[in-house]
Structure formats: structure tokens, C-alpha cells
Amino acid sequence: MSQYFIIDFDSTFTQVEALDELARISLKNHPDREKIYQQIEDLTNASMEGRLSFSQSLENRVKLLQANREHLKLLISHLKKKVSTSFSRNTIFFKNHQDEVLIVSGGFKEFITPVVTEYHIKKENIYANTFVFDDEGNIVGYDRENPLSQEGGKVKLLEELKLEGDIYGIGDGYSDFQLKESGMIKKFFAFTENIERKSVAEKADHITPSFDEFLYINKLPRAISYPKNRIKCLVIGDIEEDVLAQMRKEGYNLRQREKIEEKYLEEAGVLLCDEANQPTSEQVAKAGRLKVIGCFGKVGRRLSEAACENGIIIFDDPKHNPRSDDFLPKRVIAFMNEGKTHTSCNFPDLQPPRVSNSHRLIHIHKNVPGILAKINDVFARHNINIVGEFLVTNPQIGYVITDVNTGYDTQVLNELKAIEHTIKFRLLY
Questions:
Q1: Which of 57, 138, 194, 420 has the fewest CB atoms nearer than 10 Å to its CB?
Q2: Which keywords fit this entry according to its UniProt record (predicted)?
């Protein structure tokens, strides 16, 4: 049976509401701009939360815009930089599902099409409103015959399309939920990466904090193997808000505590701590899910070695550099995203380039002879082509990154984990 993916644009595919952004461009020099901005934003939220009909909201917002074609050009440039992070990294999904992905929005084609077509989305699969212009290029209205300009427009459109198959809806607003309410789609996923509207989220089949989560749940191809919102980041001690903001932006599930408690450490994939609140070597040995520690201070030798023996990388700041509020989280993120170990205090140094159209596998093992041969034997027996491979060692461990062609049986992963002397194995993307 066919599958279709109905994706909203504003605050879903992009991080922002496009008409709100257009107002900030078109009214930049207007003496009452702040007042008008607020009116437009209030109208947007009222319709997205189901407190005002979409048709009323749209009509009132367009009247307030005072925009023209030149303003639209500036808006498009702005929106291209505001594509939601988890959408922008999953281009491969859109490329592989061009016929099944539909952008359905109460926004306008004039700014939606130039943004989403860069992600392999077909023009004929973009459903949105269209502006009406006067002879001088000013926006003077919109096509009122378009069902998407009307209340319940998305439902009306799907009735016209008569898609046969399982339909999944992804969006942040009430108009997206109406598709589920109408019974026309199989599941509605409330997208909360940019904004969470409680009145919508509480009615959804599933809340998806990122597009990665949606792809993971539905077992679809994705840029990262495991959604970051499912990875707990334990924060202990005096950690600056700028650091936490970086981790939140990446999508990690932050949990803050005053001191280390083993039950929380054992659930964490990432640990951020200050020098006064480091885990003990015994604690890291029990932290089976922990992959990386970022310590804002100096890490002792005993902890460094114990972490290495258990396949846990550490990035620390022995000199208390003021720039570490930016530097350390970037190192942690680079390791989690790409496997880079540069500047680690306990892992051998490796900075592999990203290889497109491949899967990246990380294998950490005791530094004994013959492991690389065993890894490659698994790939050879399963006829898997290696497109890049990197091995570095220190006295304790060997660290291997292998990039392989897409498409293989999951049995391969089980065999790699079962190699003798394996400490940790991870499918990165």
C-alpha cells in the first residue's frame, strides 16, 4: 500500500512563521511596526491554536502586511536559512520519497516553492495559497477560490486529491490536526522542534520533537541512526546557559541535577559537568549508555583511563579557558554527529571527513592485534563495499570508523558487536 507524507511549512519545515517574517521585512520603516507585528503574531497564534478561523486570520494578516515582490525576494533568502535543523539534515529522505511527500500549507507558493524545491520536493506536490498583485507588484490579496485559504482548507484539499494509501500528517497547528479529526489520515504527528502548541500536541497521535524522531518511529531512511531527543544529556554543576542552549538546539533531552546520582548517570548518553562534580571511575564503569563526557575543568588521570577502558570519550578544559563555553559543546556535538575525537584527553585523535550516501559505523575495542581484520571480514562475508575506513589507537583502545555503502542486513551490526574485545559499537548515521 502507498504511503503519503503531508508536511506543513510554517514552524514545521521552517523554524518560523513566514507571514510574520514578511511583516518584519515589509514594515521595517513603518512608525507603528511593533504594534502591527504583534497584531499579526496574535492572529497567527489564534488560528494555529484553533481560537480563530484560519480564513479570518489569513485575511486580516494579509491586509496588515503592506508587502510587495521585492519584499518576497528578501523573505525567500531569509527562509532558506531558517529551514528546521532536523529537516535540513534529512535531504536523503526527500530525495528517496519525491512522489510521496506533499507540502500542504496555508502559506503561499511564492515563498514556499523556492525553499522546499531545494530539498527534492516536486513543484506539483506543493499545495499552498497564491498572492494577488497589482500592476506595481504590491500584494493586494490572494486567491479566495483556493481551498487552502478557507477554514478547514487542508481537509478540503485532501478530499479533492483522493490519495489512496496510508497518509501521515506532520505539523504544528490546529489545521494540521483537523486532518486527523476528519479521519482522512492514519496518524497525526505534532511537530514541536520549533514551537509546542499544547492544544494541538495533546490531541496528536504522537509528539515528534524532530523530524528524525518521525523517521525513526516509522523506520524510514534518516541522516542519524537514533534521534537526539531520545538521548539524555545529564548536566551536573555550574554549567553556563549558553552551553545548554547549544545542546537544546541540537535536540538533546537535558536533565539537570546538583550532583551525580548513579540512576541518572546510567540513563545518560552525554554528561556535562564541572570540575567539582566529576563521576568516579567506578561510576563510569556502570554507565553503559554513556558515550561522551564534557568537563569544564581538569579531569584526573584515573577517570580518564577508566572512561577510555569503557569506550567513553572525554573532552575537558584543564586551563579553564573562557572560550570553552562554546568550544566544549562543539567538540561533544562533533563526536556525537560525526565521530570526531580531536582534542579529546583520553581517545586517539581522528577527524574523518563526512562521506555522503553512506552509513558510518564506530567500533571501539581493546587495543589487541587482529580486530580490524575481523571487522573487515564481516563486511566481506556480507558483500558490503567499504567507501572509507579509519583506524587510530592508543595504549588502551583501538578506534575504528568505517563508512559503508547504504543497504545491508541488520545481522551485520550484530556480528560487529559480537567481535571479541569489542567495548562499544554504534551506528552513527
A1: 420
A2: Amino-acid biosynthesis, Coiled coil, Hydrolase, Magnesium, Metal-binding, Serine biosynthesis
Q: Residues 298, 317: contact at Cβ < 8 Å?
A: yes
Please say whether the structural domain 3-217 has been given the CATH code 3.30.160.20: no
Q: Is the dihedral of CA 172, 177, 178, 180 positive or negative?
A: positive
pLDDT in tens, 49-82: 889 988 888 999 989 999 999 999 999 999 999 9
The ranges of the chain annotated as CATH 3.40.50.1000 are: 3-217
Domain with CATH 3.30.70.260 in the chain: 358-427
| CATH 3.40.50.720, the chain: domain bounds | 228-338
Contacts of 145-154 spanning 24+ positions with Cβ under 8 A: 148/104, 148/105, 148/106, 149/55, 149/58, 149/106, 150/54, 150/55, 151/53, 151/54, 151/55, 152/54, 152/178, 153/54, 153/55, 153/106, 154/6, 154/104, 154/106, 154/178, 154/179
CATH architecture, domain defined by 228-338: 3-Layer(aba) Sandwich (3.40)
pTM here is: 0.79
Report how far residue 226's alpha carbon sits from residue 228's, in angstroms, rounded to the nearest whole number: 6
Alpha helices in 109-259 (DSSP H): 109-116, 153-161, 174-181, 198-201, 211-217, 241-250
Cell output for 218 = 516509522
Cβ atoms < 10 Å from Cβ of 414: 11
Q: CATH assignment of 358-427?
A: 3.30.70.260
Which residue pairs from 289-295 have beta carbons closer than 8 angstroms and sit at least 24 positions apart in sequence? 289/232, 290/265, 291/335, 291/336, 291/424, 291/426, 292/332, 292/335, 292/336, 294/270, 294/328, 294/329, 294/331, 294/332, 295/328
